[in-house]
Specification:
Helices cover 22% and strands 30% of the residues. By secondary structure, the protein is of the alpha+beta class. It folds into 2 domains: 80 residues, RimP-like superfamily, N-terminal (GMP Synthetase, Chain A, domain 3); 69 residues, Roll (SH3 type barrels), CATH 2.30.30.100. Helix 1 packs across helix 2. The protein starts with 5 loop residues before the first helix and ends in a 10-residue tail after the last strand. The model has no long low-confidence stretch (mean pLDDT 89).
Amino acid sequence: MSETPSWMEKVEQIANQAAIQEGCLLYDIEFVGAGKGRVLRLFIDREEEGAISIDDCSNVSKALNVFLEQNEDLIPGAAYALEVSSPGLERHLTKPWHFKKAVGKKVYLKTTKALESVGVQDKKWKAAKTVEEFISSADDEGVGFDVDNVKFKIPYEMIDRAKVLFEMTKGQKK
């Protein structure tokens, strides 16, 4: 993983302030592209359950623009576009609080090592490097699963990538 430039850390602090000011949480931030295709993307969420609205995105975008205009030289280089949105149904999980908020939801998780490295001895899971199951617990150290009476906990530093899986329930319209 590449190191985050110091200016991006400052942008993240400012984006976090803008989100909080508008009653939202900064879920994630990314800066992608090159030249005229550069994009600063903010993903916002709510602490309580409930959808992020277009108004929330607009309000956070406006608040962030005010902060960025006061710090014009903060983002080096040419012009860029600003996008603010919800992290979506199949949101990526990268921080401990993301996993805590996803307890009870089905996730896809890929690890850097086989699960036997965290003490899993069940032959179905021992060699596995991916998990597609419901999260049973999450704390500051890792994420827990309880599958067919096999309990295991995966430390965050062993997680390569993870995301929530959207599942349609019976009776739900497509």
